[in-house]
Design goal:
By secondary structure, this protein is of the alpha/beta class. The chain is built from 6 helices and 12 strands.
Length: 240
């Protein structure tokens, strides 16, 4: 008998919970949008502005304020925003107090490519992204005969430079020559560093750092205009 009473109470409790859940869900779906807020998760809004995002949201939804939540397709809004080439990820959701919140992570450029075919950034994931009228990033400059199939190799070179304290202080630019060799441009001394193809970078940059340490100590660094790292066991230099 006791087990039967416990069973009846459990069923009754489940029915009450289901009713309350359904009631709450219905009220939540009828909740009106009181306000729309845009946040940028990785700092300042550099390439996109709050106004730009809000305008796009309004264009895709036909207006947001005072609309019931049930009429707003949050997933569709996310899909529309992620199409922007400056957006890495986006999350759109409705808070319990009626605020439609859009959280955007913008792409972070690590290099600016300037070629006859166009000018664009490469971001920290190796993806092309366009320039912005709102902001110009201070990143490594890449010039020369760079085409789309070179982006992966250029990306690996830029990452290698940026992650090394010595190289990141020394190098300001990368130039691709027509023969697929690459030259690094220095911040000081107006020197060109030939690295050849983007391969065996650990050895080449180890030799470069050893060379700089030696010539800086001997006060001869400014005598050189070209430093060639293409050879396996030596650094070949040309004086000014």
């Amino acid at each position: 008998m006791k087990s039967y009473i416990v069973y009846i109470k459990s069923v009754f409790l489940l029915v009450v919970m289901a009713f309350l859940y359904g009631f709450a869900a219905e009220r939540n779906s009828d909740k009106l949008v009181e306000e729309s807020i845009v946040e940028f998760s990785n700092g300042a809004n550099l390439f996109l502005s709050h106004q730009m995002v809000n305008k796009l949201l309004i264009q895709k939804s036909g207006g947001l304020k005072n609309q019931p939540k049930s009429l707003i397709n949050l997933h569709k809004l996310e899909q529309e925003l992620i199409q922007n080439p400056s957006v890495e990820s986006v999350k759109v959701f409705m808070t319990i107090d009626g605020v439609l919140k859009t959280v955007i992570k913008q792409r972070t450029p690590i290099a600016r490519v300037n070629t006859s075919a166009g000018v664009y950034y490469i971001d920290e994931q190796g993806v092309k992204m366009p320039l912005s009228a709102n902001y110009s990033a201070r990143v490594l400059l890449v010039s020369g005969n760079v085409i789309d199939k070179d982006i992966s190799a250029v990306y690996s070179l830029v990452k290698k430079i940026n992650q090394d304290a010595f190289l990141s202080q020394l190098i300001v630019g990368i130039e691709k020559k027509s023969n697929k060799d690459y030259i690094l441009l220095t911040r000081k001394y107006d020197q060109h560093i030939q690295i050849g193809k983007i391969e065996d970078l650990n050895r080449k940059f180890k030799n470069l750092e050893a060379f700089y340490n030696e010539v800086i100590q001997s006060n001869e660094i400014e005598k050189y205009k070209m430093i060639n790292l293409k050879f396996s066991n030596q650094v070949v230099c040309t004086k000014k």
